[in-house]
Amino acid sequence: MTTTTASAPLISKRAIIDWLGIAPFMIFALMFLIIPTLYLVTGAFLTPAGEFTFRNIADLFTPSILSAYWISIRVSVASSLGGALIGFFLAWAIVLGGLPTWIRSGLLTFSGVASNFAGVPLAFAFLATLGRTGLVTVFLRDWFGFNLYSTGFNLLSFFGLTITYMYFQIPLMVLILTPALDGIKKEWREAAEILGASTWQYWRMVALPILWPSLLGTTLLLFANAFGAIATAYALTGSSLNIVPILLYAQIRGDVLHNPNLGYALALGMIVITGISNILYIWLRMRAERWQK
Fold first, then answer.
1. What mean pLDDT is predicted for residues 145-152?
2. Burial, 43: exposed, middle or buried (Cβ in 10 Å; 0-12, 13-18, 19+)?
3. DSSP strand E in the chain: where?
4. CA 188 to CA 213: how far, in whole Å?
5. Which domains are seen in the chain, by residue range?
6. Boundaries of each ABC transmembrane type-1 domain copy (predicted)?
């Protein structure tokens, strides 16, 4: 007597459903991320006539473009370090400090909104607050006789753009670092105290080494976040501050500096810098997750 067994289908229905579930995201990523990136990379090595060239890459090392990269890097570093420092202490206060629990939910909700508040609305908000006729500027002048702009402060400058970027950098740091601080186990603090360690010794020898990958990784993420921002900078400073995103916009859409292929090369340089930052962030995040397991 022989028995036959039905052959299993090559592709199960569950696998088809799973692939259909992620298909919209894959199509979206392909159309708006992968294909445009490949188009930019290809265009960086072509002339307007479609011929292969290294001229666009060589032009990236001209003084004006190097200066734009340097200013962008400085703004990104300053805003990421400032956002990381202030955001760390805010996250520490709501997780490990003695603040009421309702403050945590309110601050995290605000951070979720503020971290996505950028572009023209953010630029307008800062101009209306710290501009030459802004609310705070006029209040300080009329009520305290203090002229903010007489001190050399200028919102349309490196320092002003850095402060503006920190508005969305600080809440992003809070959102990302809060889970890392939640992952610090109370047993580690208790064990350190039993062994006679002071609070400073505990943070220096236990907590900070564990948090260091998360701190450094999040700072790199903030750097990449600021380096690629254009809408806020363009709406706030126009063309008065020569940063890479504004220069790229001028090359692709401008009437005077119209060289799309050089703009593609500028974009390629930005992709390389932000890509390195994101790769380092992912690597450090993986290390932090292994420490906290």
1. 89
2. buried
3. none
4. 18
5. 62-292 (1.10.3720.10)
6. 69-281
